[in-house]
Amino acid sequence: MAAVSHRVAQMPSQHSSMAQDLARGRRTEIDALNGYVQRRGAQLGLQTPANQALLALIKPTEMAILEGSSDGYTAVR
User: Fold this and answer.
1) Confidence (pTM)
2) How many structural domains does the chain have?
3) First to last CA, the chain
4) Are 13 and 3 within 8 A, CB to CB?
């Protein structure tokens, strides 16, 4: 239990790999992960609403950052 408590205490300072990619101005792995699930689901005739939502949330931010938006939220053309 002590190990879990120690790990939880460290979490506020931890950042996901996608957040680290965005902070460094790099593409994330969203297309490889959630994009693949969405494409594969479409091939199989399955809906993947959670993956579609994640793509819809992350891709505009990723593109804004890659195109030089300082806030990561500015709409892209």
Assistant:
1) 0.63
2) 1
3) 50
4) no
Identify whether 77 is part of a domain: yes
The residue among 43, 44, 42, 72 whose CA lies nearest residue 60 is 72
Rounded to an integer, what distance in angstroms lies between the CA atom of residue 77 and that of residue 66? Answer: 13
Q: What is the pLDDT of residues 32-74, one digit of tens each?
A: 999 999 999 999 999 999 999 999 999 998 999 888 865 555 5
Domain hosting 49: range is 17-77
CATH label of the domain that carries residue 51: 1.10.1040.10
Sign of the alpha-carbon torsion through 32, 27, 16, 59: negative
The answer to the question of residue 6 being in a domain is: no
* Contact present, 21 and 27 (Cβ < 8 Å): yes
